[in-house]
Design a protein that fits this description.
The complex is a heterodimer of chains A (75) and B (582). Chain A has three helices and no strands. Chain A has helices at residues 22-35, 40-58, 61-72. Chain B is of the alpha+beta class. Chain B has two domains: 49-380, 3-Layer(bba) Sandwich (FAD/NAD(P)-binding domain); 465-578, Glutaredoxin (3-Layer(aba) Sandwich), CATH 3.40.30. In chain B, 29% of the residues lie in helices and 27% in strands. In chain B, strands 1-18-14-17-16-15-6-7 form an eight-stranded mixed beta sheet, with helices on both faces. In chain B, strands 2, 3, 9, 10, 11, 12, 20 and 21 form an eight-stranded mixed beta sheet that branches. The longest helix of chain B has 27 residues, at 373-399. Residues 1-21 of chain B have low confidence and may be disordered. Classes of the chains: A mainly alpha (75), B alpha+beta (582). Chain A binds chain B through residues 5-10, 16, 18-21, 24-25, 28-29, 31-32, 35-36, 38, 40, 43, 47, 70, 74, and chain B through 391, 394, 397-398, 402-406, 409, 413, 415-416, 419-426, 428, 431, 434, 437, 439, 454.
Chain lengths: 75, 582
Amino acid sequence: MATLNTESNFKEVGKRHFRAFSPGDDFYAALIDTHRGLTDEQSAVLNARLILLLANHIGELAVLREALSIAREDL
Amino acid sequence: MIAKCGTLYRPPADGRPGSGGVWEHSALSSYKPPKFAYRPPLELRSGERRQHTVVVVGAGPVGLTAAIDLAQRGTPVLLLDDDDTVSVGSRGICYAKRALEVLDRLGVGDACVAKGVSWNVGRTFFRDEEVYNFQLLSQPDHKRPGMINLQQYYLEEFLVERARQLAEIDLRWKNRVVSVSQSDDRVVLQVETPDGGYTLESDWLIVADGARSSIRRMLNLEVEGRIFTDRFLIADVKMQADFPAERWFWFDPPFHRGQSVLLHRQADNVWRIDFQLGWQADPEEERKPAKVIPRIRAMLGDDRLFELEWVSVYTFQCRRMSDFRHRRVLFVGDAAHQVSPFGARGANSGIQDADNLVWKLKLVIDRQAPDSLLDSYAEERQFAADENLMNSTRSTEFITPGSPASLTFRNAVLTLARKYPFARALVNSGRLSVPSILTASSLNTPDEESFGGAMFPGAPMDDAPLREAGRDLWLLDAVRDRFVLLYYAESLSAAAAAGLSALAASDLPVPLELMLIVARGGVVPVAAWRVLEDLAGRYAERYDATDGTVYLIRPDQHVSARWRRADGRRIHAALARATGSA
């Protein structure tokens, strides 16, 4: 059965990364840049759309349920 | 309200908080800065006007590095500084492995490491728990640690002492450059001293006069970048504490809610504490001991005694000049680029600027390379500066999120980091200074064969323990500061040895030192080659070396080219390329 991957998994096809932190930092910077200039409400909408897009891409409900459960921990 | 980061501006001579955006309270109980003697310069005594080869302006860590490196290569240098002491206060404290390797080459590495506090472990806390820790140096068998912490004034003292041993360096204190101009064949400087002014002419000018470079201003050159709207308090505190020699970073700790705090140990039981204050904080108020002491008390959580050594409040920016070279004027260090302090990428990258520039300038001065080789200094170090700016800007965004959305993501990462490895990798409390891998440099010869490992053309060399004539030594100490050919042999056949001797006899555009690295037990003497034994096998492992593998190394210990088989023609071409003559 498919399980959620919580190991570091960021990568970019065709790009050579010399430092382990680089692909993750590239993603994080792109994420923050995407929110730049938005109001808080717009940011919330962006996040909702992003989750829906990524969830569909993953597709496997067992994996998504695991992620949903971890995301809710301590809240 | 701008200060650069990592290291801070000197307070203005009249004691006012100047345009630098640093507000300082100085006690400095444990350190008495030396006063260096000013002497009236020769030009004022005799009226003589000499043409100098190289003038370096600014006797901070970067200017001193450049001057010493040039002098060690036999080039006379005039080094000018407008002050007569080292820089005190909350300046640079972290010197990374690569900077230490350069300082080794200059003869001050041991003094720095002996006085400094070596560390490899960093810990990151969120609220009241540790979420993440890292090891700077994941491999064994390197001469130098990942990082040392050392007050900048000690580094400067060691460098000044070294500079004084070198007859090629004319070091002039209290000599302030007041104007500069250049033509096709020279640079002309007007210099003020306590005894009046004089004129200097030089073939080359290295500008190392810091973030507020007055020479940069005199030449009307811009620096562009981003100012961050946040304020930080730096407190250097002397105390007895048994905290380990590690870097501790807190996000939103109970003793300083909503902000970040960084703790570092320096020499002489001095601790650097860096508190984020927020943009609204009043810098004049915040630097008062009555305000600072309770903050430190809350952090220490006990009644231990401490003394305030130095307090300052600063802001910073990330920016660089668009071009580090302007004909005969070459900008290095903070004069050329400034980064946020998170990552120790200020002084460390400045030292690497000098390391990159000096061997090229020496070849150009000696007419062994075309003037255009100096363009590769700008190309390579602007690339490095962009990498440093990118990493330190990203760290700054993580540490001081610029929007509610950014803060939400930052805290989400931190809450996941304790349990989930992917989130730990995203925690960014500063990506600490590592040298740039200059893969895109025009001086590299691209690989034609396949190699594993990390020693790509353009990479700074990894160290390895070796043995030579019964004596242990480090690879980087053996390579030092010229072009070197490293030939690896598992066992050397007579034919291969003859080939090596032929290579040694061939005519090359620049001097090339030949080193034969043999597998354990394989030592054989070969005429004109230094023979080193790879006792622990680290060289073979790190350089993916097999029998006959050859590396061409630049004088700044970066890989220039590599092959699986030695070939005089290819070595020749690579050497021409690495000296800008291809």
